[in-house]
Task: structure prediction
Amino acid sequence: MRNAILDDNASQSSRYMAEHTLATALPSVLPGATIPIDGTVMTTDGVVGLIDEHAASMTDVAHARAALEDAIRKEHALRARVKAVTVRVRDYAKAMVGGSSTAYAALGFAQAAPRKPSSATLKLAVEKRLATRKQRMTMGARQRATIKGVLPPAPTAAATAPASPDRPDSRQPTTATAPAQPNTASTKGAP
Result:
């Protein structure tokens, strides 16, 4: 089995245990030894001191990592709380000063963009509009534009000649009136 100190894939805890074992056993196995390392000479006590320094560094990193994780958890919880509060502040400010005011914009809130209706909604609106027009018998501007008035035919010479005395002119108003009839139709609400 490979020593965890030499294994780059070893866990932090197994590496720590391997270093602790080496630092504890080295003075009894090689007491007072001088070991050449990278062109210098280290004593057994120097190697143990280096291993202890690394172990302390690993402990500091573990504490710092735990503190960082705690700080991150706290920040996430605070972010969620601030977000919830901001939503309430936004709604309150919108109700008090209006969503399109400069005071609302000064708080950093943008006016909501109008939502684009879906194609199904647009299709339904067109169908309703056409059904309403059909029921009301209304025409659009283009439909009205196609309708052109037709003038009656121009009067001919015979039509402009004076009417004969035995035949009254149909264009002249008649003076005969119909006898007056009493109004017998009832109206709602009339006495």
Remarks:
- The mean pLDDT is 82.
- Residues 44-97 form the longest helix (54 residues).
- Residues 12-106 form one domain.
